[in-house]
Design goal:
The complex is a heterodimer of chains A (98) and B (486). Chain A is mainly α and 98 residues long. Chain A is built from 3 helices and 2 strands, in the order αααββ. Classes of the chains: A mainly alpha (98), B alpha/beta (486).
């Protein structure tokens, strides 16, 4: 076994996903199967090989610092599920003592 | 309506410019076909009929006043993954339901600049994660060649609509084969250009180092026309390549004498269906008859590509999909605090496969596992790239099948994610290496299902691939549209 239910629950928490108990069981079994397959990579000696993050070399593209039109506040918050005026509304982040 | 389904965009545009047909007539023709046939196929998530007719009317007005756009009045289907101003863009996910972008993706803007008509939004696997379009949270698209089978994925709606003649052409996206594999399984042409050839600005991201946009069309000529419109540098995408774009249509009809075609032995091992092998052999013979020379090549790290890909793409996906937090757009579920709100929103909004990939991607990036998985995969990716660099010293293009099998049955691989992942074995290495690849129909198997040929090129060598694909298409005439949809 590569990973157990506790690891799946912990990783789901890191990924901010709530899971049903039956989903935890299902993903544990499936991910073990997939991770075992991924271990085939260990057969390869990659000592001295540089990692690739982009297949086509990307150079840092710079542009002139010009003032241009941008999205309006109205457009940017158009799709917000909840808002107050022009601000996104979210549940409390900092706990307040009563 | 004339024999539109067998005409290219170039030919149809001539009829429009000569006013033998109008864009409103052409658009109405496709809207009626959608009404007639899409009940069975379910390629479209949403048909934007009224909007399409308005765009068609505008195109007709432009034509009347001498307009010359390359797609002026041409009705296209759009994979539901491109931000399109004023049109709901869902990525086939519940979490993006109701999201109406305030801007156009660069690709959409380019299509608009050339005067296209927006027929509707095409189905896909949720967030482009899948090989069968069964991961759509809205509907299952069927393969027009056999309605009990999948159309491939993730651009399954785009391929099915193009094959059944429910649009002139469409655009899709390809992260590990999502244009080429459905094009192959539905018997149409699909090109994944070089990474960076087409701007990804406004494309909903899945795996940013692999995603690329490309056309799905009924002919190689249409592929060239669409590439002319969508390719090119864009300052809004820092990975887009600042290189000039050739006129791809200028390469249609040029011969391939002296072209060196590499055949990688690793792609012709066990697991390939007999009929796929047979059609590949005759395709190779055809290219030889046309004056190309065949070279045996080796891509020794092919067998490691699927494992490498599913580490890298899930890692990138877990990061990209962090943006769906119930705050800025889309679904929100209430929770007792912000973390609880995130978790409940994402629990309700994401489907099974998306959750599986977020968990896997988070795991391979997490402390203690990063080196063993993500870093290891990034190094193997270097070896896979180098395989292609070496192979292109002896060959100009590489020829392989797109998929080891033809379309499988709906439901067949849904309970076994690894089996589903392995169906992309021939397309994935191309994305890892950032290369262009095109799927061209090369025949039908004994069940009457399409088989696709893959041509892989050097970076930015799409023109040569179009040239070779056009020669093949002209010689090996394959039915593009199933009998019942003609």
């Amino acid at each position: 076994m590569k990973i157990n239910k506790e690891v799946v629950e912990y990783v789901a928490h890191l990924g901010r996903l709530a899971l049903e108990p039956h989903e935890i069981d299902m993903y544990t079994a499936q991910l073990n199967n997939i991770l075992e397959y991924m271990d085939t990579l260990n057969a390869l000696d990659t000592g001295g090989v540089e990692p690739t993050s982009h297949a086509i070399p990307v150079t840092c593209m710079l542009r002139d610092d010009l003032v241009k039109d941008s999205f309006t506040v109205e457009d940017s918050t158009l799709n917000a599920p909840e808002k107050i005026g022009s601000s996104f509304k979210v549940p409390p982040i900092i706990e307040v003592e009563e | 309506m004339k024999d539109i389904l067998n005409m290219t965009i170039i030919q149809t545009r001539e009829l429009l410019l000569k006013k033998e047909i109008s864009s409103v007539e052409l658009t109405t023709y496709f809207l009626e076909r959608i009404k007639q046939y899409d009940g069975d196929i379910s390629a479209y998530i949403k048909v934007t009929g009224e909007h399409a007719l308005k765009m068609a009317k505008e195109a007709d007005e432009k034509i009347a006043s001498g307009g010359k756009g390359q797609l002026l009045g041409i009705p296209l289907g759009i994979k539901d993954i491109y931000c399109t101003k004023g049109i709901e863009t869902t990525c086939a996910s519940q979490i993006l339901r109701g999201f109406v972008p305030p801007y156009d993706a660069t690709v959409i803007r380019k299509l608009k600049d050339e005067g296209f008509v927006h027929l509707g939004r095409l189905n896909m696997d949720e967030f482009a994660m899948g090989s069968s379009t069964e991961n759509s949270s809205f509907q299952t698209t069927k393969n027009p060649w056999d309605l009990s089978r999948i159309p491939g994925g993730s651009s399954g709606g785009s391929a099915a609509a193009t094959a059944a003649g429910l649009c002139m052409a469409s655009i899709g996206t390809d992260t590990g084969g999502s244009i080429r594999q459905p094009a192959s399984l539905c018997g149409v042409v699909g090109m994944k250009p070089t990474y960076g050839r087409v701007s990804r600005y406004g494309l909903v991201a899945f795996a940013s180092s692999l995603d690329q946009i490309g056309p799905i069309t009924r002919s190689v000529s249409d592929c060239a026309t669409m590439m002319n419109v969508i390719a090119g540098h864009d300052p809004m995408d820092s990975t887009s390549i600042p290189q000039p774009v050739p006129d791809y249509t200028a390469f249609l009809g040029q011969d391939i004498k002296g072209l060196r075609i590499g055949i990688p032995k690793e792609y012709f091992k066990d697991g390939m269906e007999e009929d796929v092998k047979k059609e590949m052999d005759s395709a190779i013979a055809l290219f030889e008859q046309q004056g190309a020379s065949i070279v045996d090549i080796s891509l020794p790290h092919t067998e490691y590509a699927v494992a490498t890909y599913y580490i890298i793409c899930t890692a990138e996906a877990s990061s990209n999909l962090a943006r769906y937090d119930g705050v800025k757009y889309g679904l929100r579920e209430s929770g007792k605090d912000i973390i609880d709100m995130y978790k409940k929103t994402r629990f309700k909004g994401f489907g099974k496969e998306v959750k599986r990939r977020i968990i896997l991607g988070t795991y391979v990036l997490s402390s203690g596992y990063y080196d063993a998985y993500y870093r290891k995969a990034s190094k193997v990716r270097t070896l896979i790239r180098k395989d292609f660099d070496d192979a292109f010293k002896a060959s100009d293009i590489i020829l392989t099948p797109v998929s080891p099998t033809t379309a499988f049955k709906i439901g067949e691989k849904m309970e076994d994610p690894l089996a589903m992942y392995l169906s992309d074995i021939f397309t994935i290495p191309v994305n890892l290496a950032g290369l262009p690849g095109i799927s061209v129909p090369c025949g039908l198997d004994r069940k009457g299902l399409p088989i696709g040929l893959q041509i892989i090129g050097r970076p930015l060598d799409e023109a040569l691939m179009i040239q070779a694909a056009y020669v093949f298409e002209k010689e090996r005439k394959v039915e593009k549209i199933p009998e019942k949809y003609k």
